[in-house]
Amino acid sequence: MHAHVVMARYVIYWICISYDIKMKENQSIGSFTTEKGSKVIVRAVSRSDSEKLRSFINELSREKTYIRFQGEEMSREAEQTYIDGFVDSMEKGKALKLLAFKGDTLVGVADVYLRDRVESHVGVFGLTVALPYRGRGIGTLLLTLMLKHVRDAIPALRILTLGVFATNAPAIRLYEGHGFIRHGLLPGGLLHKGEYVDHIDMHRIIRR
Ligand SMILES: CC(C)(COP(=O)(O)OP(=O)(O)OC[C@H]1O[C@@H](n2cnc3c(N)ncnc32)[C@H](O)[C@@H]1OP(=O)(O)O)[C@@H](O)C(=O)NCCC(=O)NCCS
């Protein structure tokens, strides 16, 4: 076979492979100034972000903020396993995790993963901003960017869902302002700092 035919096949193969990968690890989304004047760089997660993400989640866990982790520590090994699995899902078009950085500092994370089986059209959304960087528009920016990119990144996604602590007024306001609708409430569904708190379920239609 001629060398140029082999080369052409190789190029076509790589175009096909690249087309199939919905969002690549480390893929740049861009650099942004939030409405409140904060400058951040946003990109997709990569396998080598594990250590930064571990520090980020462990800090939120120690804070006992409105998330599932309430003081538990993620180990290096557990975090790397989680991130490797997440990036694999992302490259199959079944998940997306966006990271916001100020210089080298990870300041915010937004993610969506697709459920499976009879819920394989339903995605679960999560959003967290590091305590010193809250109230500067980074959460709003990450949510907006997620809503912009998730349709292409996760082709099977039809409905985005999330769960939020009923006591988390800023987050509920943020989600309602971006088209999320409440569809359920489990009274006392969360135990937060020794108190039973209602767990609110919300959703947003991504495609019909
Ligand atoms: C919820 C969260 C992601 C919002 O991110 P953020 O970068 O602080 O949000 P923004 O600066 O974009 O502000 C979003 C809205 O929340 C409000 N807000 C943010 N921090 C607030 C605070 N401490 N108190 C009251 N309102 C606050 C803002 O005023 C803004 O509302 P507006 O647009 O009407 O002015 C962030 O507070 C966070 O990570 N909290 C802890 C974890 C968490 O609750 N995650 C969500 C789980 S469902």
How would you characterize this protein structure?
This protein is α+β, with helices and mostly antiparallel strands and 208 residues long. It has one domain (23-205): Gcn5-related N-acetyltransferase (GNAT) (Aminopeptidase). Helix content is 35%, strand content 33%. It contains five helices and eight strands. The protein has helices at residues 3-20, 50-63, 76-91, 138-153, 169-177; strands at residues 28-33, 39-44, 95-102, 105-114, 122-129, 159-165, 181-192, 195-205. Strands 1-2-3-4-5-6-8-7 form an eight-stranded mixed beta sheet, sandwiched between helices. It is globular. The N and C termini lie far apart (48 Å). 25% of the residues are buried.
Please give a handful of descriptors for the protein shown.
8 strands; alpha+beta; eight-stranded mixed beta sheet; 35% helix; binds coenzyme A; Aminopeptidase; 208 residues
